[in-house]
Amino acid sequence: MTAAKRIGILTSGGDCAGLNAVIRAAVHRAAHYGWEVVGIEDGTQGLLARPVRYVNLDLNRVDGAMMRQGGTILGTTNKGDPFAYPMADGSRKDRSQEIIGGLRELGVDSLIGIGGDGSMAILRKLARIGGIKLIGIPKTIDNDLGITEMSVGFDTAVAVATEALDRLQPTAASHDRVMVLEVMGRDAGHIALSAGIAGGADVILLPELPWSVAGVADKIKRVQAGGRNFALVVVSEAVKTMEGVKAQQEFSDGQKRYGGIGNYIGHLIAEATGAETRVTVLGHVQRGCPPGHNDRVLASAFGVAAVDLLAEGKSDRLVAWSNRRVIDIPIEDAIATYAAVDIDGTLVKTARGLGIYVGDA
Ligand code: F6P
After folding, report:
1. Pocket-testing residue among 183, 257, 258, 261, ligand 1, by greatest number of atoms within 8 A of Cβ
2. pLDDT band at 80 (very low <50, low <70, confident <90, very high)
3. Residue 187 CA to ligand 1 centre (angstroms)
4. Residue 236 burial (C-beta neighbours within 10 Å; 0-12, 13-18, 19+)
5. Mutate to test the pocket of ligand 1, among 16, 78, 183 (most ligand atoms within 8 A of CB)
């Protein structure tokens, strides 16, 4: 057994529900081995600061309240690739050695990184250069990291989107309206598909499947002809327009994110069906809420397993959920496998079996 005495833990990339449950679990398991845990603040940003920004995590710091707490107590960042760090003068600088120096300053030779594929790729590169033992824990509401069946945060995001549909349904019925709900998910339609099925949607549009105005309008007209006065439409944020473009918003700092397809489709639906249509963009409420029980359990299992892997002397591995248990796989393999919605898979078939329009087959 390798005796790592002091391990670092950080959260990286967009936050999601369940991150604090991971941190709590890792601290508990580390205490079992008699190890210290330092929580690095704001992902790799904390390691660039001098002195390094961190917090000592022990059992007194991680009570059960963390299970219920959204966000991450450590803070996170989805900006600033340390290998091409954006400097104030507009140039890019390789700051990887500063980060490795930061880990040395902390006296840490093992790191648990909680992140998505982008973060894992960066952390892996840093760990290899710096000779740091790295265990990755997959988190992303998008659930697009291959191999793991479930990433931390996805289940809660689906629950929030489902609840949004539960709340849109009565107001849709009261006003005879078509309600369009735009959900996150980046290039994968997992949130839209699961929430759409769970929330009784009539139409689910996914980035993975082509759709047409005629197809959507036909479904809504059939709903109306059947005597129902409202319809629910779920649209994943990266669904393409009729021109084949993914709608994006640009922020004042130049960053771009998907967004706007819901309004585009809502307008087309109103035109094609004559139905009064309203659009809700769910946005970050899918991320910043208390985790549901599935994410709390998954996060706890991942946190414990990650520390156990370090205790076994393993490194460069990602924990993953498969067949009702935690497995570990090379990080390289995990990030090489992108998990989009399987258009021939069970959930697309289920949606079609329920009469939901999920695009033109
Ligand atoms: O990857 C998670 C995610 O929430 C995506 O679903 C979404 O497109 C993006 O992050 C939003 O990023 P930001 O928090 O930077 O606006």
Report:
1. 257
2. confident
3. 11
4. buried
5. 78
Residues with CB under 6 A from ligand 1: 14, 78, 140-142, 184-186, 237, 257-258, 287
* pLDDT tens-digit readout, 297-349: 999 999 999 999 999 999 999 999 999 999 999 999 999 999 999 999 999 99
Spatial separation of the C-alpha atoms in residues 136 and 178, rounded to whole Å: 42
63 is annotated as an active-site residue: no
Which pLDDT value is given to residue 253? 87
Task: Give the model's pLDDT for residue 2.
Answer: 47
Mean pLDDT within 250-267: 95
